[in-house]
Write a structure and sequence with these properties.
- The complex is a heterodimer of chains A (114) and B (111).
- With 114 residues, chain A is mostly beta strands.
- Chain A is 0% helix and 49% strand.
- Chain B has no helices and 11 strands.
- The interface between A and B is medium-sized, with 26 and 28 residues.
């Protein structure tokens, strides 16, 4: 089946620790996105990448980092600089520009702080 | 920057009642998209509207795009328990390369 796979489903972070969330897609999409969702709120864009080896900051990039070394993979690292990391993280992809075509979402990773 | 606002934030209805959520943008949009997120799930694309004044229907769901392309609405006729979830509208930013989401309307349906 084609789609987006996020792992792990649940992740716990200790103080001062960096953690990495995985996102893999086999849709052959060029653009990939990371969104953060807090309870009862909308989706806020963290980072996005329109092509391999290139990515741009979204609205809330501080405390996060990404890489795009392969077309199918777009991992997100939540660094220790992110003081309030507890949230639901959603990865998405689209065949064209993300503002003009529909997004396909992964099933998400729930990150909590120990 | 662009803002997309949605109202209401929450809506509780009895099964069989109608439901409407409204979306307003601070800027003119080239298109608007609607997504549904079931409790514990991820957003799923419902529809995209492109033309000024456009109206599209999906069974009991009716989507409208305003004449000025700055607002949109989603209307559900005779809600069912399967309609439960959060409905988001989203519009492209000025560069067209990303979507800005509204805060969503959380719908609960009492059987």
């Amino acid at each position: 089946d084609g789609g987006i796979t996020q792992s792990p489903k649940y992740l716990f972070r200790k103080e001062g620790q960096n953690v990495t969330l995985s996102c893999e897609q086999n849709l052959n999409h060029d653009a990939m996105y990371w969104y953060r969702q807090d309870p009862g709120q909308g989706l806020r864009l963290i980072y996005y990448s329109q092509i391999v080896n290139d990515f741009q900051k979204g609205d809330i990039a501080e405390g996060y980092s990404v890489s795009r070394e392969k077309k199918e993979s777009f991992p997100l690292t939540v660094t220790s600089a992110q003081k309030n990391p507890t949230a639901f993280y959603l990865c998405a992809s689209t065949a064209g520009q993300g503002g003009l075509e529909k997004l396909f979402f992964g099933s998400g990773t729930q990150l909590s702080v120990l | 920057g662009q803002q997309v606002m949605q109202i209401p934030q929450y809506q509780h209805v009895q099964e069989g009642e109608d439901f409407t959520t409204y979306c307003n943008s601070s800027t003119t949009l080239s298109n608007i998209q609607w997504y549904k997120q079931r409790p514990g799930g991820h957003p799923v694309f419902l529809i995209q509207l492109v033309k000024s004044g456009e109206v599209k229907k999906q069974k009991r769901l009716t989507f409208q795009f305003g004449e000025a392309k700055k607002n949109s609405s989603l209307h559900i006729t005779a809600t069912q328990t399967t309609d439960v979830g959060t409905y988001f509208c989203a519009g492209p930013g000025t560069s067209g390369s990303r979507l800005t989401f509204g805060e969503g309307t959380q719908l609960t349906v009492n059987p």
